[in-house]
Amino acid sequence: MNNNNRRGNASGKGGNDRKKTGGNNSRPGSNSGKPSFDKPGFGNKKPYGSKPHDKFEKKTPATPKATKPSDELRLNKYIANSGMCSRRDADLYISSGNVKVNGQVVTEMGYKVKLNDKVEFDGTTITPEKKEYLLLNKPKNFATSGDEGKDMRNVMELVRMATKANIQPVGRMDKNTTGLLIFTNDTDMIRKFSLPNQKSFKIYQVSLDRNLKFEDFEKIAGGVTLDNHRLMIDEISYIENQPKTEIGIKLRTQNVKVVRAIFEKFNYDVLKVDRVSYAGLTKKNLPRGIWRFLTEQEIINLKNIK
């Protein structure tokens, strides 16, 4: 570790079990000489008592009846599961008369539908989907939106064979930024991680055109003002055993463009930004351009983030 490292290496949480690997059959490549951000570092009593006893008659306890899973679903959840919007927004559409069930307008809150009912949302017939959660190690020259030029390839190409669900990326990432990107059809999660006050940690490796001066390192570590807003830096470090052009930085902001703006403010050209950790997820065993499904525990962890 470089002695000038003020706050230590940025680190994400450790390895995640892989349920399924998609994309292609590429073998994981080695990242020799690359920094390792994925090492750990950031992160019914049984009732008892005497049984009732009847001296005249021994009673046999009734066998509990097996309960069948309900085939009914609240209408707002049905809509949210279809990927159209969140439950909260679905309630607004329902109350406004924009939802039909079997041809009839329904405005009742809490209305339940069966899975074989025909539900129309704003004139479009919809079906509920199982929630899917994918993690992609995004390569360069893929955009997350369609407004970066007609010739630009879209990240959806990389995950199109993963599921039939209507998944979309969580947040935006420009074509030149690489690294971790979550995809899901869970509209509540997409909305949560897109809020400007979302406080989950993201860790980036930044490559600069020249060595980061120690005085600039110190200034960035103390916080940076961008567009009249003060941005606090959780951690910054020189990457161990790498040139001082390689910087690790840990932030809570959702906007990837902020990472470039920090260093450009001090007149450095940013050659590369790689997101190596996102809300506790890391790139371990996930080569560039490859995706995998999140584990159940990883999904729970994401949902528990405030």
Question: Could you describe the 3D structure shown?
Answer:
The chain is built from 7 helices and 19 strands. The strands form 5 sheets. Strands 7, 10, 11, 12, 15, 16, 17, 18 and 19 form a 9-stranded mixed sheet that branches. Strands 3-2-5-6 form a 4-stranded antiparallel sheet, with no helix packed on it. Mean pLDDT is 81; it is low at 1-34, 36-56 and 63-69. The protein has 306 residues and is α+β, with helices and mostly antiparallel strands. The chain has helices at 75-81, 87-95, 156-159, 187-194, 214-221, 257-264, 296-304; strands at residues 72-74, 99-101, 104-105, 112-114, 119-121, 124-126, 133-138, 142-143, 153-154, 168-169, 177-184, 202-208, 224-226, 229-231, 235-238, 246-251, 270-278, 281-282, 291-293. The protein folds into 2 domains: 72-126, Structural Genomics Hypothetical 15.5 Kd Protein In mrcA-pckA Intergenic Region, Chain A, CATH 3.10.290; 133-304, Pseudouridine synthase, CATH 3.30.2350.
